[in-house]
Amino acid sequence: MIAGGGARIGHHGVVVDVVPVRSEDKSVLLHLMQLYCYDFSEFTNDDVDDHGYFGFPARDRYWTEPDRHPYLFRVDGRLAGFALVHSGVPHDMAEFFVVRKYRRNGVGREAARTVFQLHRGDWQVRQMTLNTRATAFWRRAIPVDYVETVIDKGPMQTFHIAVDQ
After folding, report:
1. Is the pLDDT of residue 129 over 50?
2. What is the pLDDT of residues 79-115, one digit of tens each?
3. Quick check: 145 and 120 in contact, CB under 8 A?
4. pTM of the prediction?
5. What's the rounded Cα separation, in Å, for the pair 131 and 52?
6. DSSP secondary structure letter of residue 45
């Protein structure tokens, strides 16, 4: 564990710090969310508003609702992405983003597995049908057996992270 209640995980030469987003760091997450929304716009066809920003209506819930958990990822002290978790039964990986520089080198996989460990129990991870890269990623990143079904917007993996994993 590291300061702030997060975790540091290293595997295959990659050390990823996963830390809860403090309220004073909310703007950092909001900036990264713009990159996420930009990347995701190829699937959603969303536009920026008149000020050049993508909207993200649920963002404030992560500081007002106790079952929502925002995390930042850092590699060598540098911002590398974020996860937004909606805890419950099952836990839901509501949003997950890795900065392009850190993709395809284990950062996303290690960050995801760390987040799963921070919220053990039943999980679901959903993707849009068009986002085949995300589906391929989650199939590799989930560290246990999972069941994959197709829901209205696309694939969903469900699985369980046990206390002793």
Report:
1. yes
2. 999 999 999 999 999 999 999 999 988 999 999 999 9
3. no
4. 0.86
5. 24
6. -
- Burial string for 125-156 (b: 16+ CB within 10 Å, else e) reads bbbeeebeebbebbeebbeeebeeeeeeebbb
Which stretches within the chain are classed as H helix? 26-44, 61-64, 107-118, 132-141
- DSSP character string of 95-106: EEEE-GGGTTTT
3-state DSSP call for residue 158? strand
Q: Using an 8 Å Cβ cutoff, are 98 and 107 in contact?
A: yes
Contacts 24+ apart (CB under 8 A), 86-94: 87/119, 89/121, 89/122, 90/121, 90/122, 90/123, 90/124, 90/158, 91/119, 91/121, 91/122, 91/123, 91/124, 92/123, 92/124, 92/125, 92/126, 93/123, 93/124, 93/125, 93/126, 94/58, 94/68
Encoding tokens for residue 78? 């540098």
Q: Is the pLDDT of residue 3 over 50?
A: no
85: nearest Cα among 16, 21, 23, 159 = 21
Q: Tokens 């909606």 label which residue?
A: 86
Question: Tokens at residue 1, please?
Answer: 């564990």
3-state secondary structure of 107: helix
Rg of the chain on CA atoms, in Å: 15
